[in-house]
What does this fold into?
Amino acid sequence: MAERSRRSLSLAGAIAAFCGLLLPVIASAQQAVIPLQLSFSDPGARSMGFGGAFVALADDATAAFANPAGLTQLIRPEFSIEGRHWSHSTPYTVGGRVEGLPSGFGLDSTVGLRTATSGHDTTGLSFLSYAYPVGKWAFALYRHQYADLEFAGATQGLYGGGTDCCQLRLWDNQWTSDIDILSFGASVGYRIHDRFDVGFGIVYYDASLDAHVEEYLWDEDTPEAFIAPNSYLPERLVRSEDLFVDDTDWTVNVGLLWRLTESWNIGGVYRQGMEVDIGNRVLAGQGVDFGVPPGAVISQVSGLGTEFPDIYGIGFAYRRPDGRLTVSFQWDRVLYSNIPESLRLDDQTIDDADELHLGAEYVFLDSTPIIALRFGTWYEPDHQMRPIIDDPWLAAMTLNGEDEFHYTAGLGLVLERSHFDLAVDISDRVDTVSLSAIFNF
It folds into this structure.
């Protein structure tokens, strides 16, 4: 049996793992997966109830982020607060076969791959804003939780090679990651014409990431240990790696809102993606002689700029003249290809994605308080990092992605100077519950 040779982790590869954004990826078959999920959805439970189709409505204080041009629709100052609960379910490769037939012994008993799912629940303040209209102008400040996710997993017993000889086993690994990205923004809207508004915003991002990966030889250099589970013994540690981000960036948002008629709106928005510097540090373990003492730094690099996706959105909204029924549609173009292009990767890429959002609201105007029911759905195309070279090990660790449909529902209670909204967004990989309130002064 032959041990699969390994090369050291490159910083660009590690960053590709980090920047897979939303789904589990690795940069090469010889590297550990660090799956992360980010959310590009608009804030507020009302927007969520519409399936995220809010750019052509943007008629409350959450417009500070969703479409700053919509701020001019406010009559009085508004304060918005939202809390969300996220329940993430992230799949990753545990082991199995990338090629050849299994021996049928120990861990090498699976045809194809073995996968598992890492779950993480978190609850917190997701959005806070204050909007103040003055004549043709409107101004707003906000805070937005862009990402908050922890992940832990392990891969052991990933085999390949021939059926009868020259069996290969990828070095086993275990990893953890913790990402936290906050944004703070200032937006302004201006009414150019009775039916046409524009908006502009600046956004400050504060991003942090701590990821730790450890790679191990199997417990002993014996045929029996080759097919046995790994105990992750300290003396069998090959190397460890820390991937880290502690950076900030400024970006811009631009929006427009055109009221074609009393019932029809068109809205558009552009959001610039942030750029952060990522670094890594690789330390030698005891399992392999790197020519340096265990714990010594093998390599250390920092300052590689990585671009997050730019987003373009356009939407249409119809509101019946009596105000009871509203239907909204939105198309978002998410430029995920910014990531591999900024990293100059030549073995992987991410396809740009076209998200489609559709939602409707029915308002019971005769009730006290006024009740609004909302339903929506949105289409999220696959946007995993995928290999563009023929490498079965890389393909094994880069799980095939799937297009997803999200289904949303919401309830709103409207009072004279406030309204309260509750919404849910259900999908295979993440379920979200949102509770928000808006107060007029």
Q: What stands out?
A: The CA atoms of residues 19 and 264 lie 38 Å apart. The first helix runs from residue 11 to 18.
